[in-house]
Design a protein that fits this description.
Largest sheet: 7 strands, mixed
Strand content: 15-25%
Radius of gyration: 21 Å
Low-confidence stretches: 1-66, 72-82
Structural class: alpha+beta
Shape: globular
Number of helices: 9
Length: about 270
């Protein structure tokens, strides 16, 4: 029985509902238009079987992406809550390039606000962006939610530490796992999925893949906005630099970490 006394919680997965007792119930494709714009298979109560439509009394959002949470709160006048989503990950391919560039552009423009000036953000575009070599090497990941790219990033067995296809000074030389640190490269989160665990997932994938090829350390060049995540993951600052190749000087932090011993022994 679903009703005001037995509220239904909208779970992370867009194909199911979960009641207070964790009973999972398939749901038909009926929902408010605002939410339908986000979900490929919209959520709803199984009205035909319960006779109880969605309402403030019998629906509460427990887990969703920020975008879905906002839409649900607006559509049903629900309180906004901290939530998470389930992501899928895969290796990027050449066909992803245009969509990746779009995510990168939004990420550069939005997520560095509060850390860099407008001039520095625009300057950073000269040293950020897509690196096609990572895609060609099969070391670049796409993280998705319901067909939307939530973020991207990867690692490299090559010497280039950071930069895009158009950044000068790139070095394609292969690294020696016994001596060198594998590179973590081109980390970008879709602003709509910021602080939802996308970056952590990508870093975990990179660490596992680099360890599988014999690397024992990771290195990256981090932005100021990315530094808190990297520090939480275990990276420590090695040196601070400024890159002014795009005009205004952009502060960056080179960071390293040993690969987790537990990963090395897997």
């Amino acid at each position: 029985m679903v009703g005001p006394e037995h509220p239904v919680a909208i779970d992370v997965h867009p194909k199911r509902l979960v009641d207070r007792g964790s009973r999972r119930v398939r749901a038909p494709s009926v929902l408010h238009d605002d939410v339908r714009t986000v979900l490929a298979e919209p959520l709803s109560l199984p009205a035909r079987s319960t006779g109880c439509p969605l309402s403030r009394q019998n629906v509460r959002v427990t887990r969703s992406s920020r975008g879905i949470r906002e839409l649900m709160a607006r559509a049903f006048h629900l309180p906004r809550q901290d939530c998470r989503v389930e992501f899928t990950s895969r290796i990027a391919n050449a066909a992803d390039a245009d969509r990746l560039r779009e995510v990168m552009d939004h990420s550069i423009g939005e997520l560095q606000k509060g850390f860099l000036t407008h001039e520095q953000i625009e300057s950073s575009r000269a040293i950020m962006g897509i690196d096609s070599q990572l895609i060609a090497d099969g070391t670049y990941y796409v993280v998705e939610y319901d067909g939307t790219i939530a973020g991207c990033g990867g690692w490299s067995r090559r010497a280039t530490l950071y930069g895009s296809d158009s950044t000068p000074g790139r070095d394609p030389q292969l690294l020696d796992p016994a001596v060198d640190a594998a590179r973590v490269r081109a980390m970008y989160t879709n602003p709509a999925f910021a602080r939802q665990g996308v970056g952590w997932l990508i870093l975990t994938l990179c660490e596992q893949a680099a360890a599988a090829e014999g690397f024992t350390r990771l290195a990256l060049m981090g932005t100021l906005s990315g530094q808190p995540l990297y520090a939480k993951f275990g990276f420590v600052p090695m040196r601070s630099v400024e890159d002014d190749r795009g005009g205004a000087a952009v502060p960056l932090v080179e960071m390293e970490k040993p690969i987790d011993p537990a990963v090395l022994t897997d």
